[in-house]
Amino acid sequence: MDACIPIVRGEVRALIALSVEAIQLDDPWLALLVDPSYREREGIKDVDHEIEMSVRSVNEVTEGLDDAFISVHLCHAHFDRRHSTRGSYELIIEALGHMNVDRFAIELATPDSGGLDALKNFPTDKILGLGAIDHTDQNVEIPEIVIQRVENALQYVPAERITLNPDCGFAPSSANPMDLDESYLKLTAMCQAAQILKDRFS
Question: 0.85 cut: is pTM over it?
């Protein structure tokens, strides 16, 4: 992990030098830790140490880089529309407050994420990128479904600190393609919902 930090930091600095204003880091490890069966399978004995290592690594990448809006993406890894882990983010949610980033784009539309209750401890100085589209479900959401998901999240995080995103990427690898039309329709529904919500709350 430590060997990767200067590499990722260099890439982030290069993007900032190109005037990129928003940069998203992917933390493929942190969200997996919430699943007890995963921890047992991987022989993880000290989960607090693993969480602290993840937070430290992100902070070392972002230290002093104040010229860009930086997000971190968290999800349960998936392949062929199935997640490799599942569970609520309750275990890690407070640790997010110690990461020096602006936003967390979190997978929350899928039932495998364990619901929204963990958001009651979401850091008050961070923006929530609400996963509002379930990329593992072939059924295309209508805007009203997306709006309902946002309204549920509003019980925990105010509207001015919520942005919308799909739960995760639609094409995690060339060996795991997802239908382009399906992806387009899902993103269209999300954008339509975002406009309705923007009009409602502005």
Answer: yes
